Amino acid sequence: MSSLSIVTIIELVPLLGVLGLFVLPKGSTKLIKQFAIGISLLDLAISLLMAFRFDRGVSAMQFVESRNWISAFGIKYAVGIDGIALVLILMTTVLVPIVLLAGWNESEGGRWSPRVYYALILVLETMMVGVFAATDVFLFYVIFEAMLIPVYFLIGGYGRGERAQAAMKFLLYSLLGGLLMLAAVIGTYVIATNQIGSTFDVTALSGLHIDSATENMLFLGFFIAFAIKAPLWPLHTWLPTAAKSATPATSVLLLGVLDKVGTYGMIRFCITLFPHAAHTFTPAIIVLSLISILYGAFLAIGQKDINGLIAFTSISHFGFITLGIFAMTSQGLTGASLYMVNHGFSTAALFLVAGWMASRRSSTKIEDFGGLQRVTPVMAWAFFIAGMSALALPGLSSFVSEFLVLVGTFTRYPLAAIIGTTGIVLAALYVLLTVQRSLHGPTAPGNESLTDLNLREKVAIAPVIAILVIFGFFPKPIIDVLNPASHEVMTQAGYVDPQPKAGK
């Protein structure tokens, strides 16, 4: 038997950690937390080793592994990564130990023990890595659906407020998308069986000859499932509910990582497998993306709840990501892929700091945080930097990705890019208004004795802030990884970047 690829090892480490959690003595809560963080740090170290060994100049899949799973149907355990998958896996393995450390006390008072809480997060980490690495469509579908289980229990078991309703709403929306995808997966398999034999390999399936009507239906099956997960307007309504009820750590994994599965799936499957249908539906998707940008921004402006604010800003940001993907330019696709990473870290910073603010104030209302700059300066500055990244301030990482998306879109759809720029203005409005209301002005009653970030919280947020700043000034290492993969996706889909026109 051939040796395991490093991708498979990264998947297995958290699962082995889960087994270790249930071996630890009962009642050893602190040890359970330390062990879970240690396992996530080990997984991070292995993923960094993978990144170091990754060949940036190669567009093809690397660290490939393929093993028979259900031979009768041509189903395999097949994994491999390109530049896009690499950066998303790195984002995942970086964020997991951060949220575990930041949410040190979040498992307290849940429906089940802290042991179950940390086991669910480690299982989720395995699935998040697996879904970005899967090159077998059926394997991707299985992991895509299985991810619902730990998230459902994390929201319903450890959330707050109407957590049961939020968990159920998330589950129902996701199951609906999953059923549509399953129908599309089966349809694609039937066509493949008639043309090339039984296979779910994404590379082999990309060469199928499918009539236009059938291709359009299959595309929609995949796309709607991914649009729900992304989330794209009008399939977004589960997100604000989940964000308000989930713990900050769960929200980070949900909006920072899990939702990227939707936009990643659009790249890996919708465009790659169904390029002609993607071309057909591009105008409609561009319109939906613009609506998401504006809708999310306008509703964010009117939010009184800080978690609701972050949720609606994410809807707006996902509009930018989808816009970049379906601009069908390598520059737009690179920008969208980079945006996925930058949004993950900026959202993490916002949710973590907002969670600490809410726990200290026992409230999530923005108006209750007035004057925090005077009382808790470190926490206030962390929230300020996270907010500036969310509005894509030059010098912070989100600016580069947003700029690339708009430039890449402008070369093919100039009007859409112009409309999209209004989202930047609105982002400045909802972020600056929130900063002014929560951090500045007179100290709100009840805030006088609030404590600033402790050492654990500073250690947790410091790497996130550092990433936002470092990749704001020096994004080249990530862009160099993403560019070959973006060009490969565009080439496979049959798209060529528009040639620049000489000015008169």
- Kindly report the spatial arrangement of strands forming the biggest sheet: 1-2
- Global morphology: globular
Q: What series of H and E elements makes up the topology?
A: HHEEHHHHHHHHHHHHHHHHHHH
Gyration radius from CA atoms, angstroms = 22 Å
What's the N-to-C terminus distance? Answer: 64 Å
User: What is the average of the pLDDT values?
Assistant: 85
* Overall SS class: mainly alpha
Explain how this protein is built.
The chain is mainly alpha-helical. The chain has a domain at 274-496. The chain is built from 21 helices and two strands. A two-stranded antiparallel ribbon has the order 1-2. Helix 7 (163-195) packs antiparallel against helix 9 (212-229) and helix 14 (306-326) crosses helix 18. The longest helix is centred in the middle third of the chain and has 33 residues, at 163-195. The N and C termini lie far apart (64 Å).
Features:
mainly alpha; two-stranded antiparallel ribbon; globular; 504 residues; 3% strand; single chain
Please specify the SSE layout and strand pairing:
Blueprint: H1 6-21, H2 29-53, E1 62-70, E2 75-81, H3 83-102, H4 114-133, H5 137-146, H6 148-158, H7 163-195, H8 202-205, H9 212-229, H10 238-245, H11 248-258, H12 260-273, H13 275-301, H14 306-326, H15 330-361, H16 372-375, H17 377-390, H18 397-410, H19 414-439, H20 455-473, H21 476-492
Antiparallel strand pairs: 1-2
